[in-house]
What we know:
Layout: E1 11-18, H1 36-43, E2 46-52, H2 58-67, H3 71-74, H4 90-96, E3 102-105, E4 120-121, H5 150-153, E5 156-159, H6 161-185, E6 194-202, E7 207-208, H7 210-219, H8 235-243, H9 251-281, E8 288-294, H10 313-316, E9 317-323, E10 332-339, H11 340-350, H12 365-369, E11 379-386, E12 400-407, E13 410-415, E14 421-424, H13 442-453, H14 458-482, E15 498-499
Parallel strand pairs: 1-6, 1-8, 2-10, 3-4, 3-6, 5-7
Antiparallel strand pairs: 2-9, 5-15, 8-9, 11-12, 12-13, 13-14
Amino acid sequence: MPQLKSNKRPNLLYIHSDQHAAAVTGCYGDSLVRTPNLDQLAKRGVLLENVYCPSPICVPSRMSMLSGRYPYENQVWTNSHMLDSGIPTFAHAMGAGGYHPTLVGRMHSVGPDQFHGYAERLVGDHGPNQLGGVGVDHGDLSGTAGPGRTSLRLSGHGQSAYQVHDEDVTAATIDYLNRLGVKKRAGQPAEPFSLSVGFMLPHQPFVARFEDYRYYYENVTPPKYPEPFGGHLHPHIKLWRKACEIEEVSEEEIRRARAAYWALVYRMDVMIGQVLTSLRENDLEENTLIVYMSDHGEQAGEHGLWWKQTFYEDSVKVPVILAWPGHLPENIHCDKVASSLDINATMIDTLGCPVLPNSRGRSLLPLLTDPENTEWNNVAFSEFCQDAAGAGGPFPEEGIFQRMIRSDDWKLNYYHGQPCQLFNLEADPRELNNLAADPTYSETVEKLKAKVLNGWDPEWISERMAQLRADRQILALWGRHVRPTDQCRWDLKPEMDYLDDKQI
């Protein structure tokens, strides 16, 4: 670890959101969205331009981020898979290093272990703690949280329960920081803190309150690169669009959904600002590493696609901002290729906690604190594997087994049993020109494919997913009959989700 300017152990404030596309942020180049708090945080720290999630779907991405292991290593591929409680996470590393890791809000763990190393959790997720538990009732917005046409049809202004959840998360976080501030002002010795804050926004439903929505409805633009439905599409993308009923989406649906999404990003930024203000007003900002990151992106109509579940940049690239006054440089954009797993390792390194023994993450701290340090391998992987019984969308009986590699300027998307995609992101940042079938690039394809398949076996994954599915059936049946009490669940009420009677 590089020599720090102070011997005092740093604090950690880790803020993570759900489904925030990097491109829909002011500091990442969006001139429409209002994100003054994230923009200011970027000016005070380092913005990472090329960080990729380990999977473009919620639970696998988050469990990999926690563990530092790829989905095929921790065997969490779908939104119904559970991370083994015996796998240590960065929260365990924090605890082992002498911190009291605290979680407020979203983490999206599946199963009875809702802590995975956190010593305290102040606000839970909205889903059941057990398989087979009572599901979530979104009331008038039922069907809008998953990948399906309903989320576009039922879009506009009203209220998403997820915003209500995040308001509770914000209040609990501010209360936590205020209590730390009281102790500090009283002169009581304070141990450094490790605080993780999980927001649901800007995840769909694409529904935002009118006061936020109106501006974006009047000003939002269509997707820059809408892709018409046609025979030229990659077979998987064609199948996905058909299964989700988004071959043709009306201009009004696109406008409403995009306006709401931009508005939800804005509202999330407001709440992040409230948290950062509390940190500053309680005189806790000094020597605090602030990290902002999302679990995956949102396509918002680009490539004719919505939600996540693909390897296109809007889906698989995530925003990451790190600020640490006096230790990290300010107002710097770093273009190195990295993974969310590397952010895990960076937080552990910064706090001086034990390294996770089987983590694939690499600390960025030496690179960011030493301008002369150029040793970095520009590579990141992501995978998307689902079976017919997987949560998160309609899947064929044979399942989906896909993996991506970003290596320097190249991105290869491997689709098991289907053709690959190859993009040069320097020349083609919007991924409009698939080079995989061009003989000129056959060597590049084979080289990257070999790296994708090194240690990653889709046949084994298929077999293992079938075994896990059988296990889950028993656990779900047990949960339906035994009805164990949820120990850590935020109470989402159906009346929290609604569209206003009259729309713009």
